[in-house]
Protein: Oxidoreductase
Organism: Mariniradius saccharolyticus AK6
Amino acid sequence: MKEILFDEIPSLDLADFTSGSPEKKAAFVRKLGEAYNNIGFVAIKNHGLGQELQDKLYASIKKFFALPDEVKAKYERPTIGFQRGYTGKGKEHAKGRNTGDLKEFYHVGQELSTIPDSDPVKEEYPANVWPEEVPEFKDIANEAYRTLENAGRNMLKAIALYLGLDENYFEDKVAYGNSILREIHYFPIENPDSVPADAVRAAEHGDINLITLLMGASADGLQVLRKDGKWIPITALPDQLVVNVGDMLDRLTNKKLKSTIHRVVNPPRELMHTSRYSIPFFMHPRSEMDLTCLDSCVDEQNPKQFEDATAGEFLEERLRELGLRK
Ligand SMILES: O=C(O)CCC(=O)C(=O)O
Ligand SMILES: [Fe+2]
């Protein structure tokens, strides 16, 4: 595979994969593999998440984050590692850091009522937490969750084909998977001197999950670290979702597909008093998924780089490293 230094992340049309000719489908898979080998990020259109739903989603989270901190704190669930409901300002820090990120966020997981009683994950997952002050929040978040989960399943089919696996390799692993919709508010800071000098909106990190799907944010700031060390700005156009590889897929493929480091930088000092909102969907498998490197990704040139682990074990370890789990 040739090395490419992209100046921007490649754009693809998911419709080429889902309803295109066999040639278009194959070209989608090839371009996706090329992008994930080199920069770890693509932007896709025709993903199914309409503008109207995105607008409603942003409106509902703006309403929630505008509530007083004491009210939002009612929705914090530290005993479940903040995996549902609200996480307050500065509580999460990137792996390997102590300074908290300049953000607050809200986690939405699988809606338990949609899971069949016979499936053990129904007992495993915590129930969602819904803010009574914003009654529309629940239905809008659930709809976005389902739509993004579907788009993610299609992306994983393309990834499976690229890896030479059966197209449906990931299907049973992500059915009622432990995915999380994270609604983020990078809050306004009136006095930039009041926060630690090294505090940033989101310090550089790789995502934990298989893939992340990210709709357009309300402001600039997201950057991805290219192989040559240069930070490349990322903006999703209004009709695009940015989709990147997370650490679980990086492990499974023994780094054939790369989880690329990214960050959200602070705005210039005079704009620190402005908010930024963004909403990533972290696509996780079920916790029992085996993340042992695929045999096809290990050979003499590429010796196995990871200890065997399940998705659940890996997630627990990372939540402790992020300060979310004691
Ligand atoms: O806010 C963004 O644009 C990206 C956030 C992010 O990378 C994350 O929450 O993992
Ligand atoms: Fe991220």
